[in-house]
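Dear Dr. H.,

I hope your travels went smoothly. While you were away I took the liberty of generating a structure for the chain from your last submission, since the lab meeting agenda had it listed for discussion. I wanted you to have the full record in hand beforehand rather than looking at slides cold. The sequence, exactly as received, is reproduced here:
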Amino acid sequence: MNFQITEYCHHILEEYIEEGDICIDATAGNGGDTEFLCQKVGETGNVYAFDVQEMAISHTRERLERANLSTRAKLIHDGHEKMQTYVKEEAKVIIFNFGYLPGTDKRRTTTAAGSLAAVEALLERLAPQGCLSLHCYTGHEGGAAEEAALAQRLARLEPRRWRVLHCRDANRESRGESILLAERLPVRQR
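The corresponding predicted structure, in token form, is as follows:
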């Protein structure tokens, strides 16, 4: 299979999601991840999709309406660092795409501080046997520092409770993106 990196993430994440699950798209962007999550949670599940840019929320809404999936998502025009205000349930999958909204001002980006705050707030909101996916684009100013800060934070997660992977193309000159995956392991009974 020849996957784009976002498709590769979807391929991995679909193994975690079941009908009726709660999922979060922390950076709605143009709605691709939100649509994917809505398809996977089915009619009884729910997806929370966040973005600070009204254009992103609008694009996501239009995409979901075209796909007949709009009833499965709650679109929230607010920053991902404030997600705990809106999401009280545990989520099976949480997706972040850090960087900037494609096709817009590349100077308006996520930041290491905001992204770390959002991830920190959601770590315990992730359901056991759930997966946190962080798609880092490093080609913009501050992107490499953001990726490094996120990787350092996830590397400190308790190994008995978490499995953390850092994936990137090893055979390409341009290493402008990577994926960090954090799987919350099931609680072991003693």
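Two observations you may find useful: Strands lie at 22-25, 46-51, 73-77, 91-98, 126-137, 162-168, 177-184. Residues 54-66 form the longest helix (13 residues).

With kind regards,
E. W.
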